[in-house]
Amino acid sequence: MTSEMAQVVVQDSVPAHGPASPPGAPREKEDASVTIQSVDRALSILEYIASAREPRRLQDVAAAVGLKTPTCYHLLNSLVKRDFVRRNAHPKFYYLGPKLAELAHRESAAFDIRRGVRSVLKDLARDSQASAAMASLTRTHLELSVEVEAPGGLSFDGYRDDIRRACHATALGKAILAWLPEAEIARVVAEHGLPVFTERTIDSLGELIESLRLVRRHGFAVEDGEYRPGVSALALAIRDPWGAVVGSIGCLIPRDSDEMARLRDLHRQVDAAARSVSAMF
Length: 281
Hints:
- It is a single chain.
- Helix content is 44%, strand content 17%.
- The chain is an alpha+beta fold.
- The strands form 2 sheets. A 5-stranded antiparallel β-sheet has the order 4-3-7-6-5.
C-alpha cells in the first residue's frame, strides 16, 4: 500500500503500535508421521471411557487399552486434573468429565460466529457491490474462513489459490500481519518467504516492513494488484474483547479508473463490518 493511496482512501489514522521488524527465524521442520506416545495413550483412554456405557475401574481401563496399571493410573491422573475424566472415590472408578462437553460447546459457539459473520458479509457485499471475505491466520497459513460473492462482483475462484502463502500480497493478510508480534511475523516470512505473484508483489523484507507500518498508521490494508492482476482490495483487522487480532474482513474490487473512489466508500463499509464481527467475539 503506497502512502498516496492511503491518503486518498481516508484522512483519519490510528495510533501506530510500533514498527514490526521481523528478525530471521529458522524454518520449522514438520513430520506428520511423528506422534507422542503418551498423548496417543491418553487419547485411547479417553476414547474408551467415552464409549463405555458405565463407569470403569482402573484395571478395566488398563486392560482395554493395553497398558500396565501404574502407567494407566498416571495418565488418568492427568486427565482427571484437566477435567476430561472424573474419578469416584468409593468405590474407585472413572467416568467422562465435563471438559469434552465444554469444548463441544465452544465449537458450537464458533459455528454461531461463522454464521453471524456470513450474515454481516452478505450485507457488506450487497451494500458495497463488492465480494467480501473473512480471513484468519492458522499457524503461518492465511485462510479464507467465510466468502460471499456479490452479484456481478469478482469471484474467489482462482483468488483462493495460493492464498495460504500470500499474507504479504493481500489486504486480508496484511491487515492481520501488521498487528502481530515481531516473532510471529518472522515465522510467517521464514515459512513461506515472499513469493512473487505479479510484478507489483512485495518481494523484499524492507518493503514489507514499510507496508505494515502504513497499515498500522492508517488502520487498514490495501491490495493494489499485488496478488492477482487487475484486483484491488481493502481489509481491516478483527479484534477480540482484549484487542488481539483474530482475523480480517475485506472486499475485492476491479483495479480500474474508479478504484480510489470505491476504496473510500469501502473503507467506511468494511470498517463498520469489522466492528460488527469483532463484537461477536
